[in-house]
Structure formats: C-alpha cells, structure tokens
User: Fold this.
Amino acid sequence: MRTDYYLEPNVTGVSRLPARWRRNTEVFAGKSISLDGEWQFKLFDCPKACDDFYLTEFDAHTAGYTAIHVPGNWQTQGFGKPIYTNYIYPWPVDGEYGVDKKAEPWKVPKENPTGCYRRIVYLEKIQENFRYVLKFEGVETSYELYVNGEFAGYAEDSKLASEFDVTHLLHAGENLVALRVFTYATSSYLEDQDYWYLCGIFRPVTLLIEPVKRIEDVRIEAIPDRYTDRAEFLADVKVSRVSGFSKWKVQARLLDASGKEVASGRAAVADSARYSQYIVPTANTARVKLCFDGVKRWYPESPYLYTVQIELLDEKGELLDREEIRTGFKRVEIENGILLINGQRALILGVNRHDFAWKTGRTVSKEHMIEEIQSMKQMNINAVRTCHYPDSELWYDLCDEMGLLVLCECDLETHGVEGQISHDPQWAGMYVERALRMVMQHKNHPCIYGWSLGNESGFGPGHAAMYNAVKEYDKTRICQYEAGNPGANISDIRGWMYANEKDILGMLTDPADDRPVILVEYLYQIRNAGGGMRKFIELTRRYARFQGGFVWDWQDKALLGKTEDGQEYFAHGGDFGESFTDSEVPWYMTNNGLVRADLVWKPVAYEVKEAYAPILIEKPLNDTTAVSRLIPPPLR
Assistant:
C-alpha cells in the first residue's frame, strides 16, 4: 500500500481520458455491472493510519468497518464533518488556519482524513476477448484503487470520470475492489471553490465489460448550414489498436427522432496519422462525413435530437462493436462582436448552478435534476453555467433532452492563493489536462455551447495554454474565462463579474476590444437581495453586444441538520461543530439561491421569471390600449 502520496502528490496514475457515448453491449455478450449500493467503509485520521483494507484476507468486520452507501459523501452519512469555506484553504499553513496567501501550492497536510472503501464483486467467469474497465464518475478529492490486493492506479480531478483497465487483476469468483480516498491532495489547490468540502465516492461506479476489438472514442460535429436547411455531420471514430485494425471499416447511420434514417456512410480506419487533422486526426481512426437536407436544429426552446448508430466491421464485414449516441445540430459562432447560435443573436438568460442536493451533498438524483430544470423553465431561464466544475453526466443528458444551453466549466479555482499558481508555467500541464479531460468527456452534448476555463484564479500561461488546446480540439464552440479581465488569447467573451451599468457600457465602447459581453455572474442573491434586474435586461435590448449573463446563483447550498429532538433544518457552515469555519459569515455565503435548498421558490424567483419573460405587455402613457410584443428577440 502506498503511504507516501503526500510526498509525491503529482503522480498521475493510470486513469485515462474517458470517452463519451451510449454503449450497447448486449449484442456482444458484454455488459455493464453497477457497483452502486452498499460498500464497507472506515474513516481514518490520516493516510498512514490506514490498515490493510485492500488485502483479500483482511477481516473488515473485526476491524470495525461499517456500511456506507455509494454513491454518496461520507460526511452526509455520519462520517466526519463537512467544512465550508469561501476561499481560505481549510488546513493549517505556517502553524495556523487561514493564512491562505502564504500557502505553498505543493504542500498537503498530514492531518488528512482518509476514507477506505471495500466491495466484493462476483464474476461467474472472465470472458475471453473482452476487457474489464472500472469507471468512477466522481471521487473527491483523490484516490488510490486496489483490485484483489494489487495497486491498480491513482486519480485526481474529482469532478470527472476516471477509468482503469483491470482485466489482468480479475478472476472468476469473488474479487475485492478497494479505494483509499484522501480529503486533501495537491489537486486541492486547484479546487478551492466557495463551497462545502465533501468527500468520498459521490457519483456512480460501473464495471464495464467491452470487446477488445472495439470502438474506443467517438467525436461528433453536427453543424447546420447558416442559410439553408442543409447540414453536415462528421464523426471521428477511434478504434482499438490491435492486430488487423487497419483493415476495419466504420459504418454510421443518422436517425431522426422518429427512427427514420436520414443519412448514412462508411469510411476505412486509417493505418497511420497524417500531419493535418483535417484529413484524419490520428491512426486507428475513421472519419465519416455525411450531408443531408431538411435538418432540424437544436434550440433550448425546441431541443430536437438525432440518434447516431455506429458499427465497427472487420475485413469480412462482420460486426465487431456497435455504439449509439444522441446528437443535436447547432451552429455557434461570433460575428461582428456578437455571439450567434444557429445564425441568430443569442440571449443568455442564465443562472449559475452547483451540482448539489441538501440531503445528499454532491450526490444528486435524476428526480432532483428534473425538478430543477422544470423550475428553471418556469422562470424563463434558458442557460446554466456549471459553477465551478463539470456536472454529473446525467445533467448534460437532461439538458440535451429538455433544452438548456450549458456553459461547461473546468474544475479549476485557486482563489486561496489568487493567481500565484496561474502565473507559474510549471503548473500549465495540469491546467491543460483538466481542460482537455473535460472537453473529451462531454464533447458530444448538443446542450453545451461553450467551455469555461474555471473560476477566480487570476490568469496566466496555464489559461493561455488551456484556451489554445481547447480551441484546436473543438472549433465548434466558444471558450471563455473571466478572472482578471483576460484578453482574446484566453477568452472569446468578456464576462466581468458583477459589472454595473457603467462597467458594461465601458466594455461596449472599448475601441480596442469588440468581444461579446456576457456576465459570468451578476445580481448576487445574497440574503434577501434581488431588485434592479430589469436594468440588465434593458441593456440587452439597447446594445447587441451585451448578451445577458448568469445570475448568482440557483439554489441554497444548505446541508441537512438536525436539532436535539430530531427536527430537520437547513444547516450552514459552523452548525456541525467542525474544527474550522470560514470567517466569511457562512450562514449566508452558502445561501445565495433563487430557490431554497428544497427547491421552493424565494420571492426573488418571481422577479427573475418576470425579467426573463419573452413577452412584455406595455401600456403607453398616451394610449389606453395595451400592447404585447416579443422582447427580447428569441434565438430564432
């Protein structure tokens, strides 16, 4: 067992960049096994205090292990205490808490609560010509994985999935999957959001059983023509690089919402890479291009989805693998300083959203998400910024289906040391890795119109590297960042937080900068705030380059607390007797929402509903006849 991780915090392990598709493995006798449910668990004060939990002969019962539910945070299940901070790192620096600006961004505290998980997985047999992959969709903050007593890998970047090929470690019968999860790691310096510190396996866990000869990754571009009903569809399909792969072919079929085929095509798998990605991006990849007429575009008001069926065929035409994924046709571009979606001026009537539920922390149910989107729709909200990290995969699926534009944000915030890390080129590699992993995992969701490089980290070489890497990989979306007012080499958008009318007019009249202006945060709903929202909407009518923004924020982030007599209440920072609480009055810093933690509307929600309404009824002073008109203009 590793016990030196805090001395070697930059180890990257063997997790790989996860692809994104809907897998249909029943055809190939493989399957996905959910490992959600009851696991064995024990919480230790620090990594060195951990026992031999990862060994198959270890007796967890006599060692005091108890049941815990996965997915879920351990603090919401009675293990340890949650900690709220705004930006101060919650561990002693130079002998005391909160000396944040003196923090050295490589030291990890040895006083580091560590959770050990165990789960037995029974496999009737190990199938030949299949590989077994453990997928963890979200584990906070970092973790080591062991399978049958062997070290299988290490992963950070807590809000994205990591996958581990464990085929060589499994056998028929009982298999032990064990994790050691650390509260703090080097990556904590990059995940310093104004939020709760909550830990554990908080998103689903799956054992994927997939063919060795398989489709590894699918990257889709679905772009409608600007002026006609014609569309172009491109799919880069990467296959496993095993003997004979260069003789394979890829078949793609595009189906409309009724299941009718509208286009299909076939392409050979490339045997080697080319200099230009415009030919074929890499070896062992096939590029299928399709064109067709009569496209139906994806809008938040009418989120039309197509289905893509992709088949991998061997040299004899026999089926090796099949994948299925949904897509939507959407065109995103900037012209004359204005963000256009499907050729029309976009108006972002947005809100910031944490992936959060008050009784379960970072584990959010499908039912809760659907209720959120329904309420957003009722408030005339059409866009969400995923503050300040990528959300659960399920959230993007629902936004695809129900129609919300999404600004997908990278899990990167260094607020506690301001821009210290961002100014240091040595950290640029970690910045770029986080950005590209986000884009690669979520790239095929039509709801996503742009990528955000994170939040409140100053800006520096790392952000410039992130921007260029993302824009080269994905030319179909915008890429933006706000902190420190960066230039066009880092952000396609000017997103000044909490800009007032004077600030907005200053950006719009800047002769040296004609980028669109969309506020990443505005109208802070602190305490009983609100009011004045109509002024921002009026500016969107007057100035084409001011295109709205995202209210801070969607829901209160209270956790479940109980009084001595068992009554439930909305608990805030300091209510759990935790060892450290941010001095920034946590009882209101966690509660800035348009809705309460239980999604009940606050009075300000009705102001948002009115301000964001697409129809305005006016009664001129010199006339007794009311006039209704669409305002502001819709996307189409």
